[in-house]
Amino acid sequence: MGDSKKIMDEYKKKPSDAKKIDASKKIRVGIIGTGWIADAHIASYLKMPDVSLVAGADLVPGKAEAFFAKHGVKNVKLYPSHKEMLDGEKLDAVSVCTYNATHAECAVYALEKGVNVLLEKPMCVTLDEAVAIVKAEKKSKKIVSVGFQPRFDENMKLIKKMVERGELGEIYYIQTGGGRRRGIPTPFGTSFIEKDTAGLGALGDIGCYSLDMVLNAIGYPKPLTVTGYKSNFFGKSVEYSNKPEYVDIFGVDDFAAAFIRLEGGIILDFRIAWAMHPDTTGDTVIYGKKAALRIPSTDCWNGSVGGEMTLYRDVAGVQTETKIPILETENDLFDMKIRSFLDAVKENGPSPVPTSQIIYNQAIIDGISRSAELGKEIEIKIPKI
Questions:
Q1: 283-317, pLDDT tens digit by residue?
Q2: Domain segments of the chain: what residues?
Q3: Mean pLDDT of the chain
Q4: Are 192 and 377 in contact (CB under 8 A)?
Q5: Fewer beta carbons within 10 angstroms: which end of the chain, N or C?
Q6: How far is the C-alpha of 20 from the C-alpha of 23, rounded, in Å?
Q7: What's the pLDDT tens digit per position in 122-147?
Q8: d(C-alpha 61, C-alpha 58), whole Å
Q9: CATH 3.100.10.20 fits 150-330+362-379, yes or no
Q10: What proportion of the chain, given as a percentage, has pLDDT over 90?
Q11: Is the domain covering 27-148+335-353 a CATH 3.40.50.300 domain?
Q12: What is the pLDDT of residue 304?
C-alpha cells in the first residue's frame, strides 16, 4: 500500500557508520549472580573488544566456577558475595543478575564503591528500593542503566517516533499488557516464584517490559494513582501448574491488572499474565485525538511486537486503516543493551535506560501490588530525590 510505504520511508532510521570501538583501554567488568540471565550478559561481553571480565560472584558454592568455565573464561577472580567482590576488586562496571529481591542491595553497594551498574529488570521489588538506588547513583555520580533491551528494537523506536512527531495527536488512553497462556518460568528452579527471592511474579518479570514500551513512547509521564489487582490461581493450582511440586511454595502473582492515572490526563489500562486460559490479554492500543495505533500481542510475551501494526485515522473525512510492516533490527538486542551501557561508562553518561524514568515504572508496579493488597485505589507518592 502506497500510504504504508510513505509512512515507513518517513520513519525508517537512516543507516550510519557504526561507532569504532577503542579497545586500547579495557573496561574492567564483574558479574554479580551467575544464573541463566547472566549467560546472555557474558555472551555479549565476550563480543566486546574493550571489555576485560575480571571477577564474578555467586552465593551458591561452585556455581560461579561452573559458569565461567562453561563460557571458556579463565583468570577470573571468584567471590562468594557481591560485597567481597566489590571490596576486593577495582572495577569499572558490574552486571547485576541476581534475584529480584537482591537487585537493590547489590546495585547500591556497587555505587557506593564507585562502580557503574547494568541492572537487570525489574529495577527492584519496591518503590523504596528504587529510591535507594537513585539516591546512591546521584551520590556516586556513576551510571545505572536498567535492562530493557526491547527499547533498541526498531519497531519500538518507530512507536516512540510516531508519538513524538504528533502522528497520533494528544494521547488520552492506552491499553497495554501481555500474556502467556502457560508460561510460569520454572525450568531454572524456584527463584522466580518464591516470595523471598522474586518478590514479584508476572508483574515484575514481563509487566515491566509492557509498561516501558508505552511509557517510553509517551515520554514517561508521572503516575498519580493506581487501582491494582493480582492473583495466582494457576501457580497455586495442582491442576494447572507446570510444576505441581512447586504449588506450595508459589508466593508471587501469575496475573495482574491495573487502572493507572498519569500526568497529562492519560489513562493506562494494564493487564499481564504468566498463565491464563485465553491466548492473549489483548493488543496494545495507544489512543490519540488525531489517530490510534494498534500493536499486536505475541504468543509468549517478552516485550516485542507481535506483527504488523495498524494506524487508524481519518483522511479527508474517510476512516482509514494503514498497515505498518515489521521493521528488521540488524543487531542483537542484548548486544545493543550491553554496548550502550559500555559506551555510557566510557563517556560518563548519559545512561541509555535511566533510573529517572524507570523509577516511575517501579512506582507503578509497587502501586499495583499495594493497591491489590489493600483492595482500593491508592495515590502514588514518589519522593523528591
A1: 999 999 999 999 999 877 666 799 999 999 999 99
A2: 27-148+335-353, 150-330+362-379
A3: 94
A4: no
A5: N
A6: 9
A7: 999 999 999 999 999 999 999 999 99
A8: 7
A9: no
A10: 89
A11: no
A12: 77
Task: Give the model confidence (pLDDT) of 212-263 as tens digits.
Answer: 999 999 999 999 999 999 999 999 999 998 789 999 999 999 999 999 999 9
Cell readout for 74 is 579463565
Report pLDDT for 187.
84
For the chain, what is the HEC assignment?
CHHHHHHHHHHCCCCCCCCCCCCCCCEEEEEECCCHHHHHHHHHHCCCCCEEEEEEECCCCCHHHHHHHHCCCCCCEEECCHHHHHHHCCCCEEEECCCHHHHHHHHHHHHHCCCEEEECCCCCCCHHHHHHHHHHHHHHCCCEEECCHHHHCHHHHHHHHHHHCCCCCCEEEEEEEEEECECCCCCCCCCCCCHHHHCCCHHHHCHHHHHHHHHHHCCCCCEEEEEEEEECCCCCCCCCCCCHHHHHHCCCCCEEEEEEEECCCEEEEEEEECECCCCCCCCEEEEECCEEEEECCCCECCCCCCCCEEEEEEECCEEEEEEECCCCCCCCHHHHHHHHHHHHHHCCCCCCCCHHHHHHHHHHHHHHHHHHHHCCCEECCCCCC
pTM of the predicted model as reported, rounded to 2 decimal places = 0.94
Asked if pLDDT for residue 334 goes beyond 50, the answer is yes
Q: How far apart are CA 170 and CA 240, in angstroms?
A: 43
